[in-house]
Amino acid sequence: MKFNGNISFIVVLAAIILQLDVACLYAQSSKQNLNIVFIGNSITQGALLSLPDIESPPAMACSYLREQTNIGTVAYSNQGYSGFTTVDFLPSTAKAFPKVEQAAHAFTDKQALLIFSIKLGTNDSAIEGPNGSPVSPDGYKRNLKIIADSLLKEFPGCIIIFHHPIWYSPNTYNGAKYLKEGLKRLQRYIPKIDRLVAGYASSYPKQVFIGDTDGFAYFKKHYQTCLKPEDGHQGTFYLHPNKSGAQYLGYLWGQAINSVVKSASN
User: Quick one: pLDDT band at residue 266, thresholds 50, 70, 90?
Assistant: First the structure.
């Protein structure tokens, strides 16, 4: 009887271990691996940060994502370039788009979900300076559509996420001239983004999404603690996130990206 009891105990224990192994394997297989290309300007790049490789909004977003229970591995490429506009990312200009393509093709995990996280508009809104500025709201929407259509064609099954641009102070004037006129134009871009994404609902369902929408209001309210003061032609202006601002913007992007991942998988 004692011998049989030991055998029964061993059988039960083995069954429990097997169940745990299966559960562990299921949990691992249910996690979504991600490849993310962040497209943007100096804000995405992490300009003025001491360690942009680990402090930039893309780096912070990926740190957040790696902590989420539904996310597996996260690889990313920061394709943020100081001063760049939507014009610079058009395939026809052959300036930034080839770099985006190269980054997307370079990921080693070809089974991971490919995401293009896009935050553009700050430099488009300038009165003068950046390439193509000022870009009209309709021109901005048209440029974003060209970029998105090109990515969707070249990378079937990819996800595109458009984040709303963030606030800058109305006296912003460095090498480029923004001021109140630019800020007003920037705000007119936001509904264009929303309409653009809505237009993809039938042609590319569950592939093109709105990302973060809270950044503009947040940085407008907290600019003194989250944006870096810079000397300009019309006094001290606020445009680029400081370390804490970049961390929070990355958190907003990370939250938005994970929300999209969950929506796309349902």
Answer: confident
